[in-house]
Amino acid sequence: MFTLTTASSHSQEIKRSRFLAIAGPVADEQAAKDFIAEHAAADANHNCWAWRIGQIYRFNDDGEPSGTAGKPILQAIDGQELDNVVVVVTRWFGGVLLGSGGLIRAYGGTAALCLQAAEKTKIVPMVSLAIEVQFSDLALLKSRLSSLRDTVITAEQFIATGAVLTLSIPAANADDTLRMITDLTSGRAMIDRG
User: Fold this and answer.
1) Closest CA relative to residue 108, chosen from 62, 48, 55
2) Which of 115, 114, 107 is nearest to 17 (CA)?
3) Is the pTM of this model over 0.85?
């Protein structure tokens, strides 16, 4: 799965109607609602939208015939394996009716072109854990952890015997990372999987 790194837009004219798609990354449902409210054009005939956040998704046709706008936008999101993404497609009616098939192609196509042009990043599922480590192991452990891809020391708290490191590590590598920590410290590190 991927998500967008920044907002993106794409506009096109189809049979004198102007379509503008704006897509962006969102962390939760409220952020998606805020994005929609911020990017809906008051002077437009329709502001149709869709968003997906994990297994939760919503879409809206905003007055267009049922199934001709929001659902094609959602299909554009899903077709590009995106998550934590919202897309608003705004239409200014140009006087020519497009029909159901034309609307589906116009809304879905404008959303897809917008998403294709957007800068994306791979979503890496992460786990958080705390490690209590002695001073004698601290420097070497921090050096090794910093060399691991996508592993981040999010906090470091010093205690009388050493430090407690809070880590964010890729879930897929968690077992290997824990084994490396145990081996490197000869089992002295205390690991709290939270």
Assistant:
1) 48
2) 107
3) no
